[in-house]
Specification:
With 414 residues, this protein is of the alpha/beta class. The chain folds into 2 domains: 3-201, 3-Layer(aba) Sandwich (Rossmann fold), CATH 3.40.50.300; 211-362, P-loop containing nucleotide triphosphate hydrolases (Rossmann fold, 3-Layer(aba) Sandwich), CATH 3.40.50. The protein is 38% helix and 16% strand. The chain is built from 16 helices and 14 strands. It has helices at 10-19, 26-36, 51-62, 78-92, 108-116, 125-134, 150-155, 159-166, 184-193, 223-233, 246-258, 272-283, 294-298, 317-324, 345-352, 376-386, and strands at residues 41-44, 71-74, 99-102, 120-123, 144-147, 174-179, 198-201, 211-217, 238-242, 263-266, 289-292, 305-310, 334-340, 360-362. The strands form 2 sheets. Strands 3-4-2-5-6-1-7 form a 7-stranded parallel beta sheet, sandwiched between helices. A 7-stranded parallel beta sheet has the order 10-11-9-12-13-8-14, with helices on both faces. It is globular, with a radius of gyration of 23 Å. The two termini are 37 Å apart. 43% of the residues are buried. The chain binds adenosine monophosphate. Adenosine monophosphate (AMP) binds at residues 21, 24-25, 28, 47-53, 301, 303, 330.
Length: 414
């Protein structure tokens, strides 16, 4: 299938050409015809599958400039909100459409002004609900509602706000829902808000000609040393390292920094500002290594990831595929490297039982051992509490440790 088969207009096809997209992705192929016909759709797909384009183009093609807000997209995070707005701008600006991103932590008066002139809104639930309460947004003309990354809306506790928002949207709308996973709670949202929905599932594609998948069996004591060894050999692109819990993410990041690797952490326990800072640093190439939990990484569109590391082994092959699908995208090549020690074997057996996967064993010997400090975070917090390394003894001046956020020591699996 080709983009022109969807019957898109000239400006859209021209923009697709400029973006360099050669063929529709699976989710685009499966969703676009139904969305164009006005059907409600529940799509299971991850970030990076091209789902934003799947809904943004049909919405843009039917939105009329200066006729009020005709589409609303709800996203769980500010980062995703900005990503989606950029996509709407790329395809909608030439057509005279105004898309506004509405999220917390910014000047609400400016947003109120912008909302009055907008045709399409991309919003995070909390701030948008604020606007509804203030009556600063007119929603009677909304014809299409998109709920993006709904499983994360649940994870982040936003689903009640989403519920309240939906009550304010006209019932005779089209509703599109996207989620990386469809657990029972997401199914109940589908039943509640979508009319005769078309269920669409897109596999995260693994192109084995582009993705080189390997694993190392290594003694637990040497796992960190091997990771540092491999990271230091790499010369270009970004590395994304997955860990199962927030504590592991923080400990690993702090230990990598101690080994002079410019890494940053991203997980649900960090403030949005800190997460945006990490992504900005990545975009500006100030860092080349991001350590993440699955949930935190799910909504991020990070370009140019050349290596994905499984520092722990995911429980299922689907999780494995979601992780490694962050590299070798859009025709580029990439590597997925799994570091396996004794406690990972049963999970890895599950992963290997998936016949879609070809993961080759690699051996490595004689790498220098580097100590992994398990207590690096708690020691830091202790030092901060004692006022170690700060001027004077005035508690007001105490500098917060970058890792001293609430819940840092709880092993939260996101
Ligand atoms: P998503 O987060 O699922 O919307 O995916 C967004 C990423 O997919 C962006 O990096 C886009 O540039 C890329 N993308 C979207 N559609 C295509 C396509 N048809 N071919 C290649 N890359 C695409």
């Amino acid at each position: 299938m080709e983009f022109k088969d969807f019957g898109f207009d000239y400006l859209t096809l021209e923009q697709i050409r400029k973006e360099g997209f050669e063929k529709p992705t699976e989710i685009q192929e499966k969703c676009i015809p139904g969305i164009k016909k006005g059907k409600d759709i529940a799509g299971q797909s991850v970030t990076g599958s091209g789902k934003t384009l799947a809904f943004s183009i049909p919405i843009i093609e039917r939105t009329v400039p200066k006729e009020g807000i005709q589409a609303l997209v709800l996203t769980p995070t500010r980062e995703l909100c900005m990503q989606v707005k950029d996509s709407f701008d790329d395809f909608g600006k030439e057509k005279g459409l105004k898309t506004t991103a509405v999220y917390g932590g910014t000047d609400i008066r400016k947003q109120i002004y912008e909302l009055k002139k907008s045709d399409i809104i991309i919003a995070t639930p909390g701030r948008f609900l604020d606007h509804i309460k203030r009556k600063s947004v007119y929603l009677k003309k909304v014809k299409c509602l998109v709920l993006d990354e709904v499983d994360r809306m649940f994870d982040m506790g936003f689903i009640d706000d989403v519920d309240r928002i939906i009550k304010n949207i006209p019932k005779d709308r089209q509703t599109l829902l996207f989620s990386a996973t469809i657990p029972p709670k997401v199914k109940s949202i589908i039943r509640k808000y979508l009319k005769s929905p078309v269920m669409v599932k897109a596999q995260t594609m693994i192109d084995s000609s582009k993705l080189n998948q390997t694993y190392y069996e290594i003694d637990r004591k040497m796992k960190f040393s091997l990771l540092v060894y491999l990271l230091k050999r790499k010369t270009s692109g970004f590395s994304l390292i997955f860990c199962g819990t927030r504590v592991e993410v923080d400990n690993l990041t702090a230990n990598l920094k101690k080994s002079s690797i410019d890494a940053m952490a991203i997980h649900g326990g960090l403030t949005q500002n800190r997460r945006i800072h990490a992504l900005d640093s990545l975009k500006k190439e100030k860092i080349h290594v991001l350590v993440a939990t699955d949930v935190a990484a799910r909504g991020l569109d990070i370009k140019n990831v050349t290596q994905v590391y499984n520092y722990d082994v995911p429980k299922t092959s689907d999780e494995y595929i979601h992780r490694v699908g962050r590299t070798a995208r859009a025709g580029k090549s990439g590597e997925a490297i799994t570091l396996l020690c004794d406690r990972d074997h049963s999970n890895f057996k599950n992963v290997l039982s998936d016949k879609r996967l070809k993961i080759e064993r690699k051996e490595i010997r004689n790498i220098p051992q580097i100590r992994f400090d398990r207590n690096i975070i708690s020691q830091r917090n202790m030092r901060n509490k004692r006022g170690y390394g700060r001027e004077g003894s005035n508690n007001h001046n105490r500098r917060k440790s970058p890792h001293s956020f609430k819940g840092a020591n709880e092993p939260v699996r996101e």
